[in-house]
Amino acid sequence: MMVESASETIRTTPSNQNGVSSQSDVGGGREGGSNGDTNGEISPVDLLHLQQQQALQAARQFLLQQASGLNSPGSNEVKQSPVQVPVSMAMMSPQMITPQQMQQILSPPQLQALLQQQQALMLQQVRHTHARQLGSKQLAFQQQLIQMQQLQQQHILNLQRQGLVPLQPTALTLHSFSAAMCPSDLQQLWKEVSGVQSSEDALKQAEGLDLSTNSSNSTSAFAKAASAHIPLHSLVNGQSHTPKRDRARLFEWISSFTKSDSGDDHVPFYPKGGQPPSSHHEEHASSHPLYGHGECKWPGCEALCEDMGQFIKHLNNEHALDDRSTAQCRVQMQVVQQLEIQLAKESERLQAMMTHLHMRPSEPKAFNQPLNLASSGSLLKRDSDMYPEGLPHPPTSAATPITPLRQGPSVISSSSLHSHSHSHTHGIGPIRRRNSDKYCTPIASELAQNCEFYKNADVRPPFTYASLIRHAILESPDRQLTLNEIYNWFTRKFAYFRRNTATWKNAVRHNLSLHKCFVRVENVKGAVWTVDEVEYQKRRPPKMTGSPTLVKNMISGLGFGSLNASYQAALAESSLSLLNSPSLMTPSAASLNMLHVGHDDVSSTVEQVNSNGSCSPTLSPHQYSHQVHVKEEPTELEDDSRSVSLLAGVTRNLPLPSDERDLEEDLPTEELE
DNA sequence: GCATATATAAACAATT
DNA sequence: AAATTGTTTATATATG
After folding, report:
1. Residue closest to C16, CA→C1'?
2. Most confident of A42-56, A298-312, A380-394, A426-440
3. Which of A88, A270, A422, A440 could form a disulfide with A398 if both were Cys (CB 3.0 to 4.6 A apart)?
4. Cα–Cα–Cα angle for A648, A654, A659, nearest 5°?
């Protein structure tokens, strides 16, 4: 009987989420990208570049502003947010940035503000600087911008629906529709939320309970927006009724944060040791983050306070711990989270853009295609031997981002919040690494690099069940696992599988039975599953030949997790295999591999990072290690290797592409065994 | 439209 | 007897 029914209850939703519905394939236009924007010449690129920088700048400022207004709660958000998408956007080449991509990148409403700013700047530039040259292009750009806005709006809804965006406070969402936000707008928003409106409403909004946002599809976005608006106003009028339970939940929620702050290691905001109690802020005499220029800086509040004493009094009276304050705090946290995420993304993008421009200004295609396509071609040849899957890299890399540096242990979100959380704060350091890496990293590395991510974020891994199972088995010391061990591996490595149990377990069993490559071996104490590499390789040929579309999908998929997970998985999988294959090798072989890249370093570094956080020991170095590289095309390889290293943060040089290649070749043989 | 690949669901059998 | 583990069938989607 259905064993899993029990667990199943939990996940029902999720499955739907990814599995089926999402295919809408948002990515539509992306493939064009490969060649697409080449036409743009440089000027447009430059503009974009500027845009990015400006956006970044603005984001930073905004972020700082917002962050400063946030106190203790902030800390937790920092710590957590698993969700960063490992992804890929990074890999998009600058030149090919399309409205859709923009859309993807700028998810949060707040970003709209940035967008607006960018628009303004851009238009200015167009006029002053490039007007003459651009001429018609100018118009095109303007149109594009408009389009971008529209897309963004839709996208926001989509993300919300998919749960990718942490619940956006309704208010914000609404706001975004009316107009792009800017800091001042945000303030206004706050007023709306905090002002007339009852605290409960705020709460509701903060939790996203009310909205229609979640529902629907992009098509009805506007309709939703419209409907959403209504509630807002009505709320303002003061009618509302929120169950007290929500309130209780809120307090609970907030308290969880404060607790975590003190308890967990990461407390970004306060110095570890002397962290004062939450209330402490009030005590600080001379300055207070919520007080400045004679007025209260509490979001939405601009109460005038003569002095600190008065301010504190005001703070205690008006912003005591109640639903409204809590809700506001929550909203603020989300704002910060979003901005941080965005900042990180934008930074990566900027890096990628700059890198690209510096490296090969004239050759746009390098990135996109590169990947796979090119490589695939070569791969294919070798595929015959072994891996067809060459394609993968690209995607992986794309996905990767890297990033993870998250500091906090995270987790909170997943457990405490129903929706996925995101946010990671990577911000700082990580961003630095350059993108180039991202572009080409192989999948293996993807996994390795994002291992932490997958462990903590409830994001479906872009690999097929078969590839994951294989990976799990090969990773084990004896290259054999019992069903239960396989399950454990899944749950250990992927948060996603911690949550959605029933279906995936069934899927795992199904895959084990269905694919010839998985061989059941009777053992003394039961049965174990092993992998028949030959069979495994056999089945893949038909797969993807590295068509552009695939790549595109991967990219888009990775980026948002939303797209048809399964397909992504399939695509990605190919890459995964690459990873695995190395692992297959005997230790000695492995060692060879290592030479080349130093993945170790990478993996190790990554792991370290992870360890700080919450990761489990898991990733075995060796397996991930090799993966890295893999494949073909010398030129590209180089890039890959670099990228990898970059990710690691550290370093390395990019040495030996050639080695990598060798590895690959070696691998096959080994695998075949 | 067909073939293939994957995901998901579910029925059912075999084991533990 | 219940839970696990395996098999198998069916359906849906995406891609070539």
Report:
1. A544
2. A298-312
3. A88
4. 115
